[in-house]
Design brief:
8 strands; alpha/beta; Rossmann fold; six-stranded mixed β-sheet; two-stranded antiparallel ribbon; about 70% helix; 2 domains; elongated
Length: about 575
């Protein structure tokens, strides 16, 4: 064995030990949800250290003959061999001082088989990648390249081509052609580093059972024995060193993923969606208010014009007409007030339904699933949270926002000890009944008519009544052209004053409606937006602390990956 290679393994081992200790200390010091990863990492490393035997996993497409190869190597005739998928879960077998792991195979419709095989890959020191004599198809080739090069397992992989007896022709010629085909398939990568072996395990087993030497010889199975021994000699130490490093990388990756996102991404997106719905509701309510008050303003001016047109007219009971106009004004403003209040009630109803839809979305399901995974003790109604991790704080924050935005109609709760559900499957009847509760919760009755009251109208009209009546009396005393011209000017002045008074009244009424709506908005919508802002700020501060820890973990992860690269460079 090369001296430089041995020195590299020793140096990587020392760095790995120190880096692992630093990482475990960091996870323990960080406390909370990080501690479990320190325990897992210690457990993984202890298991690796205690297991002195080298583990070799046979992987590749299903029905490539992995089980047959292990049966042929170990002489174990009880191993299930099938033309279809023969292995459901990874199985370990002892052989020649190492452990051989049979795997279900890859690239089947059984995603659970793929997952179990990848778990075996992570915990194995060396890999035998098994193909049939059909070699690579597009799917197998893509996945082989991903495993070997993108995930950097090439330094601990050997390629085995099985079922060679399915091809006719001289073995040496076939082997040469296969090597050329494999080299072309792997370009721009090279085949040499995978040290391919060409065998037929089934022929070897049959030859052993029938004591048929020719069949044993043509199976070339002895080539595999020799190749594995050389593979173990050259790559065994590398594999033993590579495995715990990858295990450490895996555990740190989990800690980063679960504690960095830990529902945070979904949490902030849920807040954003609720916030957007509230803002949309504000905008829609304001637009509706503008339409209502614009029509109201136009009608007030129109009523003013009717009264103005009566100035100077003969045989008009002006006081009577004034009272009629005043009554119409009151009625019209009350109608506008009722229309506005009904609109706001409907908008509150719509907002509640929209928030209910948000809580029934895939995004919310993802958030609740993360809470369920990280759950320890959260009682229904979220009154008592034992684990104050960021995840559960975020859960409580969402619940606070939802209750505030819907006046308590919607809230989050739990179902049993775990399994979070949304208690938002509210029926239409329940939701309708809840509108009254919303009104009570908001504690605000929208009555702008109380601000623009009858006394104010009487005052405004009185300002107009004096000159109107005076002019009317003067007109009865017209005796000449000069006086008629003077009185005509007074009539025009009175008309202008009357018209201006109603224009001013229309503007004032519209402003009062807006003022009352602004007060309502502050008591309802803005308080929800403020709550969202506060919860977002608090969560951001929490995440900054998490981010600081994760930056250190990421730095350690990068150093572990450098160790993997150094081992790879030894090839």
């Amino acid at each position: 064995m090369d001296t430089n290679y041995s020195l590299l393994i020793e140096d990587v081992g020392q760095n790995f030990t120190q880096l692992s200790k630093n990482t475990i200390d960091l996870l323990k010091e960080s406390g909370g949800p990080y501690e479990k990863y320190a325990d897992k990492l210690e457990s993984v490393l202890a298991e690796v250290e205690e297991n002195s035997l080298l583990k070799i996993a046979l992987v590749g497409q299903y029905s490539a003959g992995k089980s047959s190869i292990i049966s042929a190597l170990t002489g174990n005739k009880e191993i299930k061999i099938d033309a279809d998928i023969a292995t459901d879960i990874p199985q370990d077998y002892y052989w020649n001082g190492v452990i051989l792991t049979d795997t279900p195979g890859l690239y089947t419709e059984r995603k659970d088989h793929d997952a179990k095989t990848y778990e075996a890959i992570k915990s194995s020191d060396l890999l035998l990648y098994v193909l049939t004599s059909d070699l690579f198809d597009d799917i197998v080739l893509d996945n082989f390249i991903k495993l070997a090069f993108e995930e950097a397992y090439r330094n601990k992989m050997m390629l085995v081509v099985n079922k060679m007896s399915l091809e006719r022709g001289d073995f040496d010629v076939l082997r040469k052609n296969y090597i050329e085909t494999l080299e072309n398939s792997l370009q721009p990568h090279t085949l040499e580093e995978f040290k391919p072996v060409f065998i037929d395990a089934a022929d070897y087993i049959e030859g052993i059972e029938d004591d048929f030497e020719d069949l044993i010889e043509t199976s070339h199975f002895d080539d595999l024995n020799t190749a594995i021994n050389q593979f173990v000699y050259e790559k065994g130490l590398l594999g033993k060193m590579d495995t715990p490093i990858r295990q450490a990388i895996s555990e740190i990756g989990k800690a980063l993923t679960e504690n960095d996102t830990e529902g945070s991404k979904e949490f902030f997106l849920l807040l954003e969606r609720i916030e957007n719905r509230v803002k949309q509701s504000i905008e829609k309510s304001q637009n509706n208010l503008n339409f209502i008050t614009s029509d109201l303003r136009s009608d007030i001016v129109s009523l003013g014009n009717q009264l103005t047109s009566m100035i100077g007219a003969e045989k008009v009971d002006f006081e009577g007409e004034q009272k009629i106009i005043e009554a119409k004004l009151k009625k019209r403003i009350e109608e506008a007030n009722n229309e506005l209040e009904e609109m706001l009630k409907n908008e509150r109803d719509e907002l509640t339904k929209q928030i209910q839809d948000i809580l029934a979305s895939d995004l919310a399901d993802s958030f609740f699933a993360s809470v369920d995974i990280g759950s320890e003790h959260i009682k229904a109604g979220n009154v008592n949270i034992k684990d104050f991790s960021n995840l559960h704080k975020n859960f409580k924050a969402i619940n606070t926002v939802v209750e505030k935005a819907t006046g308590g109609i919607l809230r989050l709760s739990t179902k049993g000890a775990s399994g979070f559900v949304k208690s938002t499957a509210v029926s239409g009847t329940e939701l309708h009944k809840g509108i009254y509760q919303v009104g009570k919760f908001f504690g605000h009755s929208f009555k702008p008519w109380q601000a623009v009251n009858a006394a104010k109208f009487l005052t405004n009209v009185a300002k107009v009544a004096g000159p109107i009546l005076a002019v009317a009396g003067v007109l009865l005393e017209i005796t000449g052209h000069v006086k008629e011209e003077q009185n005509l000017g007074k009539v025009l002045q009175a008309k202008n004053e009357c018209s201006s008074s109603f224009v001013s009244l229309a503007k004032s009424t519209q402003e009062q409606f807006q003022k009352q709506f602004d007060e309502y908005k502050n008591n309802t919508y803005n308080s929800v937006l403020e709550e969202i802002s506060n919860q977002r700020k608090e969560a951001t501060l929490q995440n900054q602390n998490v981010s600081s820890i994760n930056q250190k973990l990421q730095a350690n992860l990068n150093q572990f990956e450098v160790l993997i690269e150094r081992l790879g460079s030894s090839n």
